[in-house]
Amino acid sequence: EFPITVRNLSEAIGRPAKSIMGYFFQDGKMVTINDELGEEDALEVAMELGVDLEIKRGRDIEAELLASLDHDDDEDTMEWRPPIITILGHVDHGKTTLVDRLRSANVAAGEAGGITQHIAAYQIEHDEQALTFVDTPGHAAFGEMRARGANVTDIIVLVIAADDGVMPQTEECISHAKNAGVPIIVALNKMDLPEVDDQKTLQQLAQHDMLPSEWGGEYEVIRTSGETGLGLDELVETIQLTAELHEYRANPDRRAVGACLEAFRDEGRGVIAWLIVQKGTLKVGDDVLCGTTYGRIRAIYDDQDNEISEAGPSRPVKVAGLNEVPTAGVHFFVMEDIEEARQVAETRLHEGRAEVLSTRGKPRTLEDILSA
Ligand code: GTP
Ligand code: MG
């Protein structure tokens, strides 16, 4: 029923367009039959003409939500934001160890069977600049999760163990990475191992249409070791250079929009969703729509589980307050109020629909995916 033009309103309330225009004319405003009216004006004129008008909001909310994802905010609202770097690669090639080393943590050691089961995101500081890393599982069964990680990302670091070279999941990652259309940096990892043949991997990369820069191509290949720390400074510098070239920016002063990377039910805290803010600032007390779930944000935790009160662009956080566990890989939106969030969530639930991040750019609906 949007937009509310004079003509639409006239039809809706059963009063001549002339009377509507006349009302505005008395007020010193000239409107034509095709002019759009603000909601308040529409309500006022309807009341004046003796009609109790109710404008049902929300029918176009889905479009508004998509628009808030797709369109950049005004130029003068945009500020620098940390780059989001997704780590992709074959199982066991050392992704988690690399991220652990960068953040001086030890996640890899605590993982069941040494295999990453879900996406995790962390922020580190380097030269007083924040960088957000998204660690993904390399296991074959987690392809969809990798696609999700690749979706929110600005830069991809493709980890290849030098003793193993390009493996099946490496190939899959190359295709995700290329689909994402973002810069790819190769970390040729485990270079601490004796007698590794780095030339072999360079050749394989060239065969996969990823000619290394040292051979005149456009792909930076950094020799690294998560074990010894070799090459990690160079890796971070290369990431920062790439980020500088692209100038990643977002408006921090708007209702937050972002993606849900993971979600689960925590015994003590209830539903916990691992979100990454893409635009705006997420605050405790915000009313959030996340796929088919909704809720008022009760607590925000940073990547070390410290409680924080808000999170700006590119910040990965865990939040408590959603009514149910959302599907991982959907977008979240801060809504005007809890009622609006609930309505959209319930409509989506009813229609069995939630957009899932599996391609970059426009999110697809579940229907799109099922019918594809
Ligand atoms: P998934 O998450 O299961 O895909 O694995 P991953 O890529 O995160 O690998 P992870 O960091 O868990 O490391 C796998 C194994 O390789 C572990 O036993 C690590 O200790 C070992 N490893 C990781 N990085 C290096 C490295 O640079 N050198 C050597 N020698 N071993 C490494
Ligand atoms: Mg891992």
How does this model look, in words?
Residues 83-231 are annotated as: G-domain. The strands form 4 sheets. This protein has a 6-stranded mixed beta sheet, with helices on both faces. Helices cover 31% and strands 24% of the residues. With 372 residues, the chain is α+β, with helices and mostly antiparallel strands. A hairpin with a 3-residue loop joins strand 9 (257-266) and strand 10 (270-279). It has helices spanning 6-13, 17-26, 39-48, 61-70, 95-102, 107-110, 143-151, 168-180, 198-207, 232-246, 338-351, 366-371; strands at residues 79-80, 84-89, 120-126, 129-135, 155-161, 184-189, 221-223, 249-250, 257-266, 270-279, 282-283, 287-290, 293-301, 307-308, 310-311, 316-322, 331-334. Magnesium ion binds next to helix 5.
Q: What attributes does this structure have?
A:
alpha+beta, 6-stranded mixed sheet, disordered C terminus, binds magnesium ion, 372 residues, 17 strands, 31% helix, 24% strand
Mean pLDDT: 88
Oligomer: single chain
Overall strand count: 17
Please mark out the parts with pLDDT under 50 across 5 or more consecutive residues, or reply none.
358-372
Work out the helix count.
12
Distance N terminus to C terminus? 30 Å
Rg (CA only): 25 Å
How much of the residues is beta strand, in percent?
A: 15-25%
The coarse overall form would be elongated
Task: Give the neighbour order of strands across the main sheet.
Answer: 3-4-2-5-6-7
What structural category arises from helix and sheet content? alpha+beta
| Run of helices and strands | HHHHEEHHEEHEHEHEHEEEEEEEEEEHH
What is the helix content?
25-40%
Biggest pleated sheet: 6 strands, mixed
- Bound ligand species: guanosine-5'-triphosphate, magnesium ion
